[in-house]
Amino acid sequence: MSEVQATSAAARAHQASGEFPQALECVERLREIDSFPADGQPRLYELWEARLQQAMGRSDVASERVDSALIRASNLAFEVDASTAWGWLDELSGSFGSDWRCEYLRGMLAALDDANEYALELMDAALEHYTPTGWMPSETLLLQNAAWVARREWRWDRSAAYLEKALAIDPGDPGTLLALGTSYANRGRSAEAVRVLERALATSPHNQDVHLTLARAHRDARDFPKAADHIERARLLAEPEGGGTGS
């Protein structure tokens, strides 16, 4: 029997006997020796620790371990197989109640599995229960990712609604400005697209995507000289520094 197997068996035996401090020592040892096992599937021992701390009536410490588990799950959820990641999140919710961060991570996993409508439901649940925490995602990033999922379903108005909220939180975020301008442009809201994209250009004057999207918005508004100007500026940005092809 390996050390991991022996320690795991001891932890379960102590837990079954109500010897929670001894079980916790075993789980802490497991976290040291088996968090990144040879089979490539990381273990989330922070969850086990949280349950033991909760059993000992240490709710504050248990809450800290849940936060640690969520942070680690968020860092690893897209590196392990999907069933492992979903299992972690189900266990977190089942043992400690639903958390907006679980809903957010579920939403991202669902989107990567092309279940975009379900992903949007989960993102909306995360936004409804969002509270600031000491780790990502920020509310702005959560809204940006919800908008990204909406765009995958060609839901441009819904994408714009998320991004408008994100922009209200951080009016100068260049990523939000470009994404919102793109959503407006794709819905034929050319004047709004130009207004937002000009703000994006002020923060990112050398961003080729901003120029190209502005060119499209001006074209749709039938302002062809401005469209041509932004196409030329995008072309110049795409050239190697120094320009020209040499002889």
Task: Describe the overall structure.
- By secondary structure, the protein is mainly α.
- It is 74% helix and 0% strand.
- It contains 13 helices and no strands.
- It has helices spanning 3-16, 20-34, 45-55, 59-76, 82-96, 100-112, 116-128, 139-152, 156-169, 174-186, 190-203, 208-220, 224-238.
- Helix 2 (20-34) packs antiparallel against helix 3.
- The longest helix is centred in the N-terminal third of the chain and has 18 residues, at 59-76.
- The N and C termini lie far apart (71 Å).
Q: Helicity level, as a percent range? A: over 70%
Tell me the structural class: mainly alpha
What Rg do the Cα atoms give? 24 Å
Number of helices: 13
Order of helices and strands: HHHHHHHHHHHHH
Shape: elongated
Cα distance spanning the termini: 71 Å
Q: How many strands?
A: 0
The largest sheet, given as strand count, sense and whether it forms a barrel, is: none
Question: How confident is the prediction overall: mean pLDDT?
Answer: 85
Beta-strand portion reads under 5%
The low-confidence runs, each spanning 5 or more residues with pLDDT under 50, are none
